[in-house]
Write a structure and sequence with these properties.
By secondary structure, the protein is an alpha+beta fold. Helix content is 36%, strand content 34%.
Protein backbone atom coordinates (compact mmCIF):
# COMPACT_ATOMS: atom_id res chain seq x y z
CA UNK A 1 0.00 0.00 0.00
CA UNK A 2 1.38 3.41 -0.97
CA UNK A 3 1.98 6.21 1.51
CA UNK A 4 -0.81 8.22 -0.14
CA UNK A 5 -3.26 5.32 0.27
CA UNK A 6 -2.27 5.04 3.93
CA UNK A 7 -2.89 8.77 4.42
CA UNK A 8 -6.25 8.52 2.65
CA UNK A 9 -7.25 5.70 5.03
CA UNK A 10 -6.14 7.67 8.10
CA UNK A 11 -8.16 10.72 7.04
CA UNK A 12 -11.29 8.65 6.34
CA UNK A 13 -11.06 6.08 9.14
CA UNK A 14 -9.63 8.19 11.97
CA UNK A 15 -10.84 11.62 10.86
CA UNK A 16 -14.30 11.05 9.47
CA UNK A 17 -15.29 7.71 11.04
CA UNK A 18 -13.84 8.26 14.51
CA UNK A 19 -14.27 12.04 14.56
CA UNK A 20 -10.59 12.78 15.27
CA UNK A 21 -10.17 16.22 13.69
CA UNK A 22 -6.51 16.35 14.72
CA UNK A 23 -5.67 14.12 11.74
CA UNK A 24 -6.02 17.25 9.61
CA UNK A 25 -3.48 19.06 11.80
CA UNK A 26 -1.01 16.23 11.25
CA UNK A 27 -1.68 15.28 7.64
CA UNK A 28 -2.98 18.36 5.77
CA UNK A 29 -0.66 20.93 4.26
CA UNK A 30 -0.94 24.49 5.57
CA UNK A 31 -2.15 25.51 2.08
CA UNK A 32 -4.66 22.63 1.77
CA UNK A 33 -7.69 23.48 -0.42
CA UNK A 34 -11.13 21.88 0.03
CA UNK A 35 -13.16 21.78 -3.20
CA UNK A 36 -16.28 19.99 -1.94
CA UNK A 37 -19.41 22.10 -2.08
CA UNK A 38 -20.59 23.42 1.28
CA UNK A 39 -17.33 23.19 3.23
CA UNK A 40 -16.78 26.61 4.74
CA UNK A 41 -14.10 27.81 4.96
CA UNK A 42 -12.66 25.74 2.09
CA UNK A 43 -9.64 24.56 4.06
CA UNK A 44 -8.73 22.18 6.90
CA UNK A 45 -10.81 24.19 9.40
CA UNK A 46 -13.88 23.73 7.17
CA UNK A 47 -13.27 19.97 7.02
CA UNK A 48 -12.89 19.82 10.81
CA UNK A 49 -16.16 21.71 11.24
CA UNK A 50 -17.92 19.28 8.90
CA UNK A 51 -16.57 16.27 10.81
CA UNK A 52 -17.77 17.80 14.10
CA UNK A 53 -21.24 18.58 12.70
CA UNK A 54 -21.61 15.07 11.25
CA UNK A 55 -20.70 13.45 14.57
CA UNK A 56 -22.98 15.84 16.46
CA UNK A 57 -26.04 15.03 14.33
CA UNK A 58 -25.11 11.36 13.74
CA UNK A 59 -23.18 10.14 16.83
CA UNK A 60 -22.62 6.73 15.20
CA UNK A 61 -21.43 8.24 11.89
CA UNK A 62 -18.90 6.09 10.03
CA UNK A 63 -17.43 5.62 6.59
CA UNK A 64 -16.32 2.30 5.15
CA UNK A 65 -13.80 2.34 2.32
CA UNK A 66 -15.09 0.07 -0.44
CA UNK A 67 -12.59 0.81 -3.24
CA UNK A 68 -9.33 2.75 -3.61
CA UNK A 69 -7.49 3.65 -6.80
CA UNK A 70 -4.16 5.45 -6.85
CA UNK A 71 -3.05 7.53 -9.83
CA UNK A 72 0.22 9.40 -9.34
CA UNK A 73 -0.35 11.97 -6.57
CA UNK A 74 -4.12 11.30 -6.28
CA UNK A 75 -6.11 8.64 -4.46
CA UNK A 76 -9.72 8.02 -5.49
CA UNK A 77 -12.05 6.32 -3.04
CA UNK A 78 -15.60 4.99 -2.98
CA UNK A 79 -17.02 4.79 0.51
CA UNK A 80 -20.26 3.94 2.24
CA UNK A 81 -21.30 6.47 4.89
CA UNK A 82 -23.76 5.42 7.59
CA UNK A 83 -25.33 6.91 10.65
CA UNK A 84 -28.43 7.52 12.75
CA UNK A 85 -29.75 11.06 13.03
CA UNK A 86 -30.07 11.98 16.71
CA UNK A 87 -29.81 15.80 16.47
CA UNK A 88 -30.58 18.63 14.05
CA UNK A 89 -28.71 18.36 10.74
CA UNK A 90 -28.96 21.58 8.75
CA UNK A 91 -32.69 22.19 8.26
CA UNK A 92 -33.62 18.61 9.21
CA UNK A 93 -34.83 18.16 12.80
CA UNK A 94 -33.85 14.93 14.61
CA UNK A 95 -35.56 11.95 12.99
CA UNK A 96 -33.98 8.92 14.63
CA UNK A 97 -33.66 7.48 11.11
CA UNK A 98 -30.68 5.59 9.81
CA UNK A 99 -29.03 6.35 6.48
CA UNK A 100 -26.54 4.67 4.17
CA UNK A 101 -25.14 6.57 1.18
CA UNK A 102 -22.27 6.43 -1.29
CA UNK A 103 -19.46 8.98 -1.08
CA UNK A 104 -16.74 9.47 -3.71
CA UNK A 105 -13.56 11.25 -2.62
CA UNK A 106 -10.43 12.31 -4.46
CA UNK A 107 -7.43 13.42 -2.42
CA UNK A 108 -4.20 14.86 -3.82
CA UNK A 109 -1.00 14.57 -1.82
CA UNK A 110 2.40 16.24 -2.02
CA UNK A 111 5.42 15.49 0.16
CA UNK A 112 3.35 13.29 2.49
CA UNK A 113 0.63 15.91 3.06
CA UNK A 114 -2.94 16.30 1.83
CA UNK A 115 -3.06 19.36 -0.42
CA UNK A 116 -6.45 19.09 -2.18
CA UNK A 117 -9.74 17.24 -1.74
CA UNK A 118 -12.81 16.83 -3.93
CA UNK A 119 -15.84 14.96 -2.64
CA UNK A 120 -19.30 13.98 -3.78
CA UNK A 121 -21.77 12.56 -1.31
CA UNK A 122 -25.16 11.28 -2.46
CA UNK A 123 -27.02 14.08 -0.70
CA UNK A 124 -30.34 13.34 -2.40
CA UNK A 125 -30.28 9.78 -1.01
CA UNK A 126 -29.40 11.20 2.41
CA UNK A 127 -32.34 13.62 2.34
CA UNK A 128 -34.74 10.92 1.15
CA UNK A 129 -33.61 8.46 3.83
CA UNK A 130 -34.08 11.12 6.51
CA UNK A 131 -37.59 11.81 5.19
CA UNK A 132 -36.94 15.13 3.45
CA UNK A 133 -38.17 14.55 -0.08
CA UNK A 134 -38.61 17.36 -2.58
CA UNK A 135 -41.92 17.35 -4.47
CA UNK A 136 -41.71 15.16 -7.63
CA UNK A 137 -42.41 18.13 -9.93
CA UNK A 138 -39.29 19.88 -8.64
CA UNK A 139 -37.17 16.78 -9.20
CA UNK A 140 -38.47 16.41 -12.76
CA UNK A 141 -37.73 20.07 -13.49
CA UNK A 142 -34.19 19.77 -12.16
CA UNK A 143 -33.60 16.57 -14.15
CA UNK A 144 -34.81 18.24 -17.34
CA UNK A 145 -32.29 21.06 -16.78
CA UNK A 146 -29.42 18.58 -16.41
CA UNK A 147 -29.96 16.92 -19.78
Amino acid sequence: MSTNEQLFRIIIEDGFSKGDVTVLDRHASSDFVEHQYGFNPPNAEGVKERIRSLHNAFPDFSMTIEDLVTDSDKVWGRMTARGTQKKQFGPIPPTGKKFEITVIDIMRFKDGKLIEHWGVADRLALMEQLGMKPPPKIIMKIMSLLR
